[in-house]
Amino acid sequence: GFEGLLVDLLLEPEFAHRLFDFITKARFHWYDQKERYTGISRTMANLYNDEVAYPILSPDLYTEFVYPYEEQISQYHGGVEYWHSCGNVSPMIPQIRKLSGIKMFNSGAWTDYRAASNHFADRIVEFQVPPLEDLFEADENTMRTKIEQIVAAVKDYEVNSFYIRAGGIMKYKDWQQDTAKINQWIDICRDVLANA
Predict the structure, then answer these.
(1) Listed residue (99, 132, 134, 98) closest to 113, CA to CA
(2) Is the pTM of this model over 0.90?
(3) What pLDDT, in 10s, does the model give residues 40-82?
(4) CB neighbours (10 Å) of residue 17?
């Protein structure tokens, strides 16, 4: 499992690099075969990296063991359309920003909004908030404060394009209460953005 892989990063780094190289080349082979078979050219990559999260993975481990293969993937695909991690990647943001051709960065619910805004101001930033604490269980003041914090970071760093989403929304109470909370969130977003 993942724990064993983390141990390998520390105790068997050569093996880990061989494994990641094999996986990366297998991805390229799969896309080459898909393109030959379907005639559909490959598109920019989407990288979903929920396992890239601090403190599970340190910035140094990300830089040594993940970033080089993400860069190869970016080069192969002509860029990264969407880079995602639900985890906290705040300390890795400067290294992630070095990826060539990154178009949209997901600032997960536990990632520092200001750091994401600072490093990705010239890209699209998807700000994700935790749906329970900032939406379904939140009062109006909590919702407004969170949205205002994100909008302040966006303004301070002049982010070109962004949106805010409550990730992983599922039925929480009943559809009437859930819908009312979602509509309240939307109304507050509109109000904050209109007055920003």
Answers:
(1) 134
(2) yes
(3) 999 999 999 989 999 999 999 999 999 999 999 999 999 999 9
(4) 16
Q: Is 83 exposed, middle or buried (0-12, 13-18, 19+ CB in 10 A)?
A: buried
- Per-residue tokens: 7: 């141990």
Give the chain as a DSSP string.
Answer: -HHHHHHHHHH-HHHHHHHHHHHHHHHHHHHHHHHHHH-PPP--EEEE-TT--TTTS-HHHIIIIIHHHHHHHHHHHTSEEEEE-SS--GGGHHHHTTSTTEEEEEE-TTS-HHHHHHHSTTSEEEEEE-HIIIIIT--HHHHHHHHHHHHHHHHHTT-SEEEEEETT----S-HHHHHHHHHHHHHHHHHHHHT-
Q: Which two tokens stand for residue 196?
A: 């920003």
Q: How far apart are CA 96 and CA 119, in angstroms?
A: 9
- Structure tokens that stand for 5 in this block: 């892989």
Q: Which of 78, 80, 97 is nearest to 46 (CA)?
A: 80
Instruction: For the chain, state the CA radius of gyration.
Output: 19
| Size (the chain), residues | 196
Q: Is 185 exposed, middle or buried (0-12, 13-18, 19+ CB in 10 A)?
A: buried
